[in-house]
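Page 37, continued from 36.
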């Protein structure tokens, strides 16, 4: 097994932090799962287009690695999700993370 490189390690770390399987990330980012596995374990590098798709699904942009808000990330994942039950769960989670500013203390 090769040594993880920066990008492979980053993708793996972000994916695991968000509890997303390799299978799910690969499918949503339109990358073969074997390719994602090789990127993460450092046995191959990838082109910029592939890295952008992986990072985008994880809520980051390649340009500056700026973190999108949790709500925006969940919205994007919901839009890309094909499974209706998982899409509904992502939408519900997104609603729970939103700050509506409706409650005020009197």
């Amino acid at each position: 097994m090769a040594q993880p490189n920066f990008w492979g390690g980053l993708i793996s770390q972000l994916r695991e932090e968000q509890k997303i399987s390799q299978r799910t990330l690969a499918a949503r980012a339109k990358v073969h799962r074997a390719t994602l596995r090789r990127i993460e374990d450092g046995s191959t590098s990838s082109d910029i287009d592939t890295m952008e798709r992986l990072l985008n699904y994880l809520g980051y942009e390649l340009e500056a690695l700026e973190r999108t808000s949790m709500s925006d990330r969940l919205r994007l994942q919901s839009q890309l999700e094909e499974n209706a039950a998982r899409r509904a769960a992502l939408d519900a989670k997104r609603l729970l993370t939103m700050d509506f500013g409706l409650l005020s203390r009197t």
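Residues 69-98 form one domain. Flag for discussion at group meeting. The chain has two domains: 1-67, 69-98.
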